[in-house]
Write a structure and sequence with these properties.
Blueprint lengths: L1 H15 L2 H9 L7 E6 L7 H18 L3 E8 L2 H7 L2 H6 E5 L2 H4 L1 H4 L4 E4 L11 H16 L4 E6 L6 H14 E6 L2 H9 L7 E2 L12 H10 L9 E5 L9 E2 L13 E2 L4 H24 L3 E6 L5 H10 L6 E5 L5 H9 L1 E6 L2 H7 L6 E5 L3 H9 L5 E3 L12 H14 L1 H33 L8
Helix pairs in contact: 3-18, 8-9, 11-14, 12-13, 12-17
C-alpha cells in the first residue's frame, strides 16, 4: 500500500509533464558519454558471498565501460556495513544508498542509465517470497522510467506458482539481458515459460582475487592454527528452520532481519535447530578425536552467527575449534581459512566457490538448489545431503551419522578430488570471465558511442 501511494505520487509528477518534455528528460542522460550504473543486491548484511560478488561486479563494470563509466550506485541494507567490504577506490568512486523503494526512484532523479540486479538468489523464493518481490518490483520501477535492467549472474530455484508468473512477466517486460550462473537455473526458467536468450556462465565470485600469501599466513597464525601439524576441517552451518520470515515491528535483536521482518520461531522449529546443532557438534567432536583435526566453524552471514555460535558452544572439544563470524571479519580473512582446509562441510554456496581456487574437497548439507547445482556440475553428487527443503520444518536425516563416512571418503579420495576441482575451477573461471564480455557487448549495443549527442 505504501509503495502504491509513493508510485502514484511520483507518477502524478510524470503524468503532468508533456510527452515531449518527458522524452527530453530521458534523453538528458544520452547527451553525455558517461554511463552510470546502479547495483541492487543482497548487500550490507555481512554476507561474505554477496560482498565478494559485488567486488567482482564493480570490476566487471569498470572493465566493460572503461573511460565511459560515470557514477556507480550501490543500494545496500546498511551503508556502514557495506563500506567496510569495499576497497578505498570503490568507496571513493561509488555512491551508497540505503535500500528502499523510495531510493529506487533516484534511478531517474539522479540520472542512472542501467539497473543491475546482482544478487545470485534473485529468482529464488525458498526462504521468502519477499526477496523475489523486492527484486521484481525494482525492475518494474526501472521500466517505469525507461531504465534498462540486467539480471547479472543470477540463479533460479523451484518457485511457487505465483512466483513463476511474477518472474516470467518481469523478465519478459522489464529485463533486457539475463545472465544465469548454471544450466539448472536456465532449465527451470524454460519450465516456467521464460523465452528469449538466456546466457549461462558461472558465478562472478570465481574471479575474486586470492589474498596475498603473507596475509593468509598472518590470518592463520592469528587463529593459532597449523595445518602442517593438524589438518583443519571447515564447517559452514546455516539456519534452516526459521523461514519464512514474519512481520513483527518489535523483536529480539538476534531474531531481527531487515525491519520489520524477523525470524519465525515456533517450539518445533527451535527443537529442529537444536537437533541440527547437536548432531553437527557431534560430527565436529568426531573430527577432533578420530581425524586428529582442528575445526573452523565459519558463519558466512549475520543470520548464521547464532547457529554457528551455538554449534561452537555445544562442542565438547572447544580447544580445537575456532569460531569465525562474518560480522567481525573481512572477505580475505574468511578466504585465508578456506584456503588451508583439508575438507569442508558447507551449507553455503559461496564458501565452496571461494575455496575453489584451492581445490578444497567438500560435502554439502543442503536446504535448496544452489549447492546441488554446483555438485552436479562437478560430478560429486555422492557428497550431497538433501537435508531439508526450506521452508519445511521436518527432516529425518541424522547428519552426524551421514557425514562421518563422507568425510572418510573425501580424505581417501583427496588427491583425485583436488585434481578434479582444480580442472573444474579453470573452466568456471573461463565461464565467469564471459560475464564482463557480455556486459561490454551490451553497453556497446545499447549505448553506442557514435550515437551520443554532444
Amino acid at each position: 500500500m505504501l509503495l502504491g501511494a509513493y508510485v502514484a505520487q511520483n507518477m502524478r509528477f510524470v503524468s503532468l509533464c508533456p510527452k515531449e518534455n518527458c522524452q527530453l528528460f530521458r534523453h538528458r542522460r544520452s547527451r553525455t558519454k558517461k554511463i552510470s550504473v546502479l547495483c541492487l543486491g543482497y548487500n550490507g548484511v555481512n554476507n561474505i558471498g554477496s560482498e565478494a560478488k559485488l567486488c567482482v561486479v564493480l570490476d566487471d563494470i569498470r572493465h566493460a565501460l572503461g573511460d565511459r563509466l560515470g557514477r556507480v550506485g550501490i543500494l545496500t541494507q546498511n551503508v556502514r556495513n557495506q563500506s567496510r567490504f569495499l576497497s578505498d577506490f570503490d568507496r571513493a568512486s561509488s555512491q551508497l544508498y540505503r535500500a528502499s523503494f523510495k531510493a529506487l526512484f533516484r534511478i531517474i532523479r539522479h540520472g542512472y542509465d542501467v539497473l543491475l540486479l546482482t544478487e545470485g538468489s534473485t529468482f529464488i523464493d525458498a526462504y521468502s517470497s519477499a526477496f523475489l518481490y523486492v527484486y521484481c518490483t525494482s525492475a518494474w520501477i526501472a521500466k517505469l522510467f525507461d531504465v534498462p535492467v540486467i539480471g547479472y549472474v543470477n540463479d533460479c530455484g523451484h518457485l511457487k506458482p505465483s512466483s513463476q508468473s511474477r518472474v516470467r512477466k518481469t523478465i519478459h517486460r522489464c529485463i533486457s539481458m539475463l545472465i544465469l550462473r548454471n544450466a539448472d537455473a536456465a532449465e527451470r526458467m524454460r519450465q516456467y515459460g521464460v523465452e528469449g536468450i538466456l546466457h549461462v556462465t558461472a558465478d562472478s565470485v570465481y574471479l575474486y582475487p586470492s589474498p596475498a600469501p603473507e596475509r593468509i599466513r598472518e590470518n592463520i597464525a592469528r587463529l593459532n592454527l597449523d595445518p602442517q601439524k593438524r589438518p583443519v576441517i571447515g564447517i559452514v552451518p546455516k539456519e534452516f528452520f526459521c523461514w519464512p520470515p514474519k512481520i513483527q515491528f518489535r523483536s529480539h535483536r538476534s531474531d531481527r532481519l531487515s525491519w520489520p521482518f524477523c525470524k519465525q520461531w515456533t517450539a518445533q522449529r527451535r527443537e529442529m535447530t537444536q537437533r541440527y546443532v547437536k548432531q553437527l557438534a557431534g560430527f565436529c567432536d568426531w573430527c577432533v578425536e578420530h581425524l586428529d583435526a582442528d575445526v573452523a566453524i565459519i558463519s558466512m552471514e549475520t543470520m548464521d552467527a547464532q547457529v554457528a555460535t551455538s554449534l561452537y558452544r555445544t562442542m565438547a572439544s572447544k580447544a580445537h575449534a575456532r569460531l569465525l563470524l562474518s560480522d567481525e571479519l573481512h572477505i580475505d580473512d574468511i578466504v585465508s581459512v578456506l584456503s588451508v582446509l583439508k575438507l569442508q562441510v558447507t551449507s553455503r554456496y559461496h564458501s565452496a566457490v571461494l575455496a575453489s581456487p584451492y581445490s578444497v574437497p567438500f560435502a554439502v548439507v543442503s536446504g535448496d538448489t544452489r549447492c546441488e547445482s554446483l555438485l552436479r556440475e562437478l560430478g560429486m553428487m555422492e557428497y550431497f545431503i538433501d537435508y531439508v527443503r526450506v521452508p519445511e520444518t521436518q527432516t529425518d536425516v541424522n547428519i552426524e551419522e551421514v557425514l562421518k563416512p563422507m568425510a572418510l571418503s573425501l580424505i581417501a579420495r583427496e588427491t583425485e578430488l583436488r585434481s578434479l576441482l582444480a580442472k573444474k575451477h579453470g573452466q568456471f573461471k573461463e565461464r565467469a570471465a564471459m560475464n564482463r564480455d557480455l556486459l561490454k557487448e551490451y553497453f556497446s549495443s545499447r549505448f553506442p558511442e557514435e550515437s551520443v549527442q554532444l
